[in-house]
Amino acid sequence: MYHWAERLYHRLPLGRNILEHQVEAFDFTDTMDEIEGLNPPADSLRAGHDAIPSIIHFIWGLRDAELNFINYLAIRTAILNSGVDEIKLHSFKLNEDNEWLKRLKPNITLVPHCPEDLETKDARKSWHVAHLSDVLRLDILYKEGGIYLDMDAFVVRHFSSLLTNPKDVILGHEGGNRWGLCNAVILARKDAVFLKRWIDNYHNFSGKDWNYHSVILPKKISSEFPEEVCALSPTVFFWPTWTFEHVAYMHRPLSKSETLVVKDDLMRQSGALYANQIAYHAWSQMADRHYLAKLTPESMMHVDTRFNLMMRPIIMSSF
C-alpha cells in the first residue's frame, strides 16, 4: 500500500512543483520558541513537575512478528546513542527466535499487549495497522510517559537536554513550511492534557485521511493550546523530509568530495547531519521499497551515502 504522500504525489500532475516544493522549502532558521525548546534552562521545570521519564518506547509486532535489519538498526541506535535508562519494545506478537530480536534482547524490555484491548474500541478491527500503532503509542505515553520512536527513527544524539522541558509534550515539525507535527517521535509526561485531547479525537477517526490524526491534528491542537506542547524545528527529528527528492538525497551514492563533506559534518556535529539534530526519521513508507529494504550491514559499510555514513558507527559497533 502506498503511503498517503506517495498516493497524493501520483495524483498531482505537477506534484513535484506544488506538493514537494512546499514542504522542501526551508531556510534553516529556527524560531526563538524552537531554540528555547531544544535547550531549556536547567531550572525550567515547574514546581511539582518531574522530568520526562528516561524511557524509550518502540512498537512492533501488531501484524508482523518478524523484526528486520532496519528495525534492529533503529533500536540499536537508541541503545547506543540515546542515553536513556530503559528501552521497551511493545508488541502483540514477536518471533523470539528472530535473529535481530535475539541480538537486542539483552538491552531491551519486551512488553506484550493484548490485541483485544486495543481493537474493541471505535471499530478498530477495521483499521490499518499503522493507525492502531498511532493510538497505542498515545495510550502508552499517557499512562507511562517517556519517548516514543517509530521503528524507522534513528537516534544520533542524547535526548537528555529535552527531558527537563517545562511543557508536557514535545513534537517536531514536519516539512520546511512547518505544516504539521509528526507522531513518529513524541516525548511526553504521563497524564499530559495534550495527549488526552489527541486521544479523544480518535473517537471520530476516519482512515480516509491517512495523516490527519498523526500530523495535521496535533498541529491544530498545538495552535489552540500552545502552552501544552513544545514544537521543535524540522531538523531536530524530521529533516530531510518525506519527499522523493529528499529520500533520494539520503540514499544516493556520494562522490568522493561529497563524502568528505558529509564525514566532516558528522565529525563536527557528534554524528548528526545538522547542528540541532537528535534523531533522523527515515520515512520508510516512502523509502523502504527503493532503499531501506535493500540495505545490509555489508552494503552500508561499502557504499557511501548520507544515511550509510550516519549509521556506519552503529554497524561497526554491532557486527
Explain the layout of strands and helices.
Layout: H1 4-11, H2 15-24, H3 32-38, E1 55-59, H4 69-81, E2 86-91, H5 99-104, E3 109-112, H6 115-119, H7 129-144, E4 146-149, E5 153-155, E6 169-174, E7 180-188, H8 193-200, H9 212-224, E8 229-232, H10 234-237, H11 244-251, H12 256-268, E9 279-281, H13 284-287, H14 297-302, H15 306-318
Parallel strand pairs: 1-2, 1-4, 2-3, 6-8
Antiparallel strand pairs: 4-7, 5-9, 6-7
Helix pairs in contact: 1-2, 4-15, 7-8
Give an overview in words.
The chain is α/β, with parallel strands linked by helices and about 325 residues long. It is about 40% helix and about 15% strand. It is built from 15 helices and 9 strands. It has helices spanning about 5-10, 15-25, 30-40, 70-80, 100-105, 115-120, 130-145, 195-200, 210-225, 235, 245-250, 255-270, 285, 295-300, 305-319, and strands at about 55-60, 85-90, 110, 145-150, 155, 170-175, 180-190, 230, 280. The chain has a 7-stranded mixed sheet, sandwiched between helices. A two-stranded antiparallel ribbon has the order 5-9. Strand 2, helix 5 and strand 3 (about 110) form a beta-alpha-beta unit. The longest helix has 16 residues, at about 130-145. The relative contact order is 0.16. The model is unreliable at about 1-15 (pLDDT under 50).
